[in-house]
Amino acid sequence: MTFAASRFARELSRLPRPLKFAILVLLDLLIFYGAAVLAIALRYSETASGPGISQGFQAHFLITLLAPMVGVTLLAVMGVYSEVLRYSTVKLAGRIASACLLLTIVMVSLSFILDRTGNQSRSVLIMLGVLSFLGIWPLRLLAKYFLSIDGQADSVKAIIYGAGVAGAGLAAALTADPRWSLVGFVDDDKRHHGRNVAGLKVYSSDLLPRLAAETGFKSVFLALPSVDADVRKSIIDRLRPLNAEILTVPTMEELVAGQANFRDLRQLDMEDLLGRTAVNADERLVLDAISGKSVLVTGGGGSIGSELCRQILRAAPRRLVVLDQSEFNLYRIGSELPELIKDRSVRIECMLGSVLDQAFLDEVFNTHHVDVVFHAAAYKHVPIVEHNVVAGVETNVIGTLQTVDTAIRHQVERFILVSTDKAVRPTNAMGASKRIAEIIVQDRAATLERREDGPSLGIVRFGNVIDSSGSVVPKFRSQIERGGPITVTHPDITRFFMMIPEAAELVIQAAAMTEGGDVFLLDMGDPVKIVDLARTLIELNGLAVKDADHPEGDIEIEFIGLRPGEKIFEELLIGDNASPSDHERIFRAIEESFDHSTVQNMIEEISTAIGRRDVARLRDLLKSFGNLKGS
Fold first, then answer.
1. N vs C: which end of the chain shows fewer Cβ within 10 Å?
2. Residue 229 bridge partners (DSSP)
3. pLDDT at 82 over 80
4. What region, left, alpha or beta, does residue 302 occupy, with left being phi > 0 and alpha being psi -120 to 50 degrees?
5. Is residue 496 helix, strand or coil?
6. Going from the N-terminus, what domains does the chain have, and what CATH number goes with each?
7. What is the secondary structure of 100-134 as a DSSP string?
8. Could you count the other beta carbons within 10 Å of the beta carbon of residue 488?
9. Which helix (H) or strand (E) holds 182?
10. Residue 112 confidence (pLDDT)
11. Of 158-167, 259-268, 557-566, 592-601, which gets the smallest average pLDDT?
12. What pLDDT is recorded for position 350?
């Protein structure tokens, strides 16, 4: 019977739209006519069976003819025929009831005009309206049922994790969505178990494996917008073996701000997978460092630079100067930032140019009276810099040198270099160039300390930021969408990860705490094994890893070998000493200093090699100076 109903539903859905409309109107005409006949039969059945009913039909002959035409016209006027039956709701019943009520009123009015003999019964007309509704509305429900059978053939069975407000809202939003067929809720709160929410039963989360086997659901919707990150991660870890795609509703902040609704399901973020609970910066310190100041962000269109700009605006600077040499990046962030301004007196200036252009830098500092500098401009992709050493070192070393010296010359208050964990015992050109940039900033800070004047210079060092350009996460997701394989360089490779907003916030916090030559380390948590990350992303997409033990899997993980200069393990600390700071996730590194003459000699030799485009000599200098030992 189910097969027959499904086949009938499929054939019905394939009919041309005009034909389906014509069939529906014809059925409505028959229902109105049948309602009129039945009302007459019920009213006059009390009299002698034959003559009484016959007399009733004669008295209501015109009403019987007019009722179908008037009824269909009123349904059209009430917008009943414009409703898509597959997605119809109880509101449609209200429209039909209104149309049937109007039908009764119109028929009663016509009876006063047309009934010259007074033989018509007003109760027939009242029953006409009631019986018409009892025929028209169930017809829609029946049509919706058959159409839903057809839709369910292609829909994905899904279960909602969380039977609270967010879960109920999501269920209501997805009820009419043909893509999904909801099979119920699961929840950890025992008070909800066995109850019905939005027409769906709530099960214990302990029953998930059994539910997966019995219902065959292929997707899980996390309706937990406000739970702690560690709780969220533990739930995700429990869901991973179910071979189901996991999607989540937006965060509570997005829902409250009206930036999204329950129906805006999205893939899990790396924040969900890492279980990191972001710790906010000390707002007082941040305001002291930023509020009312003219702030320059170099590389302001990049992943970290653009997030720095967003968060700096929250601290109400006098002016934000965004400097980038990429026209596209500058346009993108320049279009976004004005929407974030709360105080319209804040000026945003987008400057297109390079930190290698000294005249341009002087113009920026002079024109905008810069107070605070966040130097995020750098080439940071290891393989690209490894094959373009001159360009990479010139930007990362000479660009930093010119920017910090310009900042000192123009007497800014603070200068922060955004660095990387790859600067620690570097094995590649990019890491060595960033280490040399750190040495230059430390040298300038030591010189200023001896002179007891000038800006506070600091360095912030951290690992990979998730979903930045070049991050493995977008790359893995793209490879999964293409059907694989996922490419990993080495089975043992690990990396530190941090969310972009958290990293930017802590960089600003570090700027507020810097006193001179500080090297700040951001707490990156535990390192993540990249192959485990790849497996997790595959499983959270409802797929299985394909390997020798599981040849029937969906996505293969392929090891392609380490790239030139790539490390298996990353570090954040050069020495063995780090001390706490005023923020629980920021540490001060205690590292050896360098002789000023040695640093100046290093700068001169690197500049000469760059000028001659002597790649071999430049590599030798990176090996030598990038691993300098303190004097």
1. N
2. none
3. no
4. beta
5. coil
6. 2-152 (no CATH), 156-268 (3.40.50.720), 283-625 (3.40.50.720)
7. HHHHHHHHHHHHHHH-SSS---HHHHHHHHHHHHH
8. 20
9. strand 180-187
10. 74
11. 259-268
12. 95
Residue-level length of the chain: 631
Residue with tokens 């279980």: 275
Q: How confident is the model at residue 132 (pLDDT cuts 50, 70, 90)?
A: confident
Write down the H helix ranges in 283-428. 283-290, 303-314, 327-336, 358-368, 382-387, 389-393, 399-409
Average of pLDDT values for 436-451?
A: 85
- Position 577 scores a pLDDT of 57
Whole-number Å distance between alpha carbons of 499 and 274 = 10
Closest CA to 273 of 470, 469, 493, 473: 473
CA atoms of 37 and 555, how far apart (whole Å): 65
* pLDDT, average across residues 389-413: 95
Task: For residue 381, give the H/E element and its range.
Answer: none
For 155, the 3-state DSSP assignment is coil
CA separation for the pair 270, 540 (Å, rounded): 11
Listed in order, strand segments (DSSP E) in 205-329 are 219-222, 245-248, 266-267, 294-298, 319-324
Instruction: Convert 520-588 into a string of H (helix), E (strand) and C (coil).
Output: EEECCCCCEEHHHHHHHHHHHECCCEECCCCCCCCEEEEECCCCCCCCCCCCCCCCCCEEECCCCCEEE
- Is the pLDDT at 49 greater than 80? The verdict is no
pLDDT band at 470 (very low <50, low <70, confident <90, very high): low
DSSP element (H, E) containing 512: helix 500-513
DSSP-based three-state secondary structure for 202: strand
Among the ranges given (145-154, 397-406, 485-494), the one the predictor scored with the smallest mean pLDDT: 145-154
pLDDT of residue 92: 79
**Distance between terminal CA atoms of the chain?**
87
Element (DSSP H or E) covering residue 302: none
Tell me the C-alpha distance between 105 and 128, whole Å.
Answer: 11
Cβ atoms of 538 and 545 closer than 8 Å: yes
What is the Cα–Cα distance from 148 to 604, expressed in whole angstroms? 75
CA distance 271 to 476: 16
Residue 392 has pLDDT above 50, yes or no: yes
Please check the confidence at residue 2 and state whether its pLDDT lies above 50.
Answer: no
pLDDT reading at 262 higher than 70:
no
Q: Residue 294's beta-bridge partner residues?
A: 319
Higher pLDDT pick, 129 / 11: 129
Q: Is 495 helix (H, G, I), strand (E, B) or coil?
A: strand
Give Cα separations from 156 to 215, 542, 545 (angstroms): 11, 12, 21
- Which of 159-173, 176-190, 275-289, 593-607 shows the lowest mean pLDDT across its residues? 275-289
Query: What is the separation of C-alpha 120 from the centre of its chain, rounded to a whole number of angstroms?
Result: 66
Q: How many CB atoms lie within 10 A of CB 564?
A: 11
Decide: helix, strand or coil at residue 294: strand
| Range from 247-261, 305-319, 403-417 carrying the lowest mean pLDDT | 247-261
Q: Is 469 helix (H, G, I), strand (E, B) or coil?
A: coil
| 227 touches 277 (CB < 8 A) | no
Query: Would strands 578-580 and 586-589 be described as parallel, antiparallel, or unpaired?
Result: antiparallel
Q: Measure Cα distances from 566 to 23, 357, 482, 569, 570 in Å.
A: 69, 31, 26, 9, 10
What are the residues whose beta carbons fall under 8 Å from the beta carbon of 369, sequence distance 6 or more? 294, 319
- Exposure class string for 11-26: b at 16+ Cβ within 10 A, else e: eeeeeeeeeeeeebee
